[in-house]
Amino acid sequence: MPTPESSRIRFLRTDQVMELCGLKHRSFWAAIADGSFPKPDAYLGPRRPVWTDETITRWQLERLEQHREQPQERRNRIVVLPVTDKRRVG
Known about the structure:
The chain is mostly helical. It has a domain at 13-71. Helices cover 42% and strands 10% of the residues. The chain contains four helices and three strands; from the N terminus they run βααββαα. It has helices at 14-21, 25-33, 53-69, 72-75; strands at residues 11-13, 42-43, 49-52. The chain has a three-stranded antiparallel β-sheet with strand order 1-3-2. The chain is flat, with a radius of gyration of 17 Å. The protein starts with 10 loop residues before the first strand and ends in a 15-residue tail after the last helix.
């Protein structure tokens, strides 16, 4: 039988989740919008989403498994992303 300590739900705020997952603000919300990251488990206020540590751990394990399933040569490939900054230099 689980003890009260072991059955506690730990909520993580947006900044904590972004830090744990290594995502920046814009990438984080884009991933939620496109379904590649889980939506909040609850809201503690109108603009205060939270995730359980279990949800985040499950997402991290799924990502790790996806990475392991890729062929070795694809894992080591360097990906160059296009520059999206429209500001002029000079």
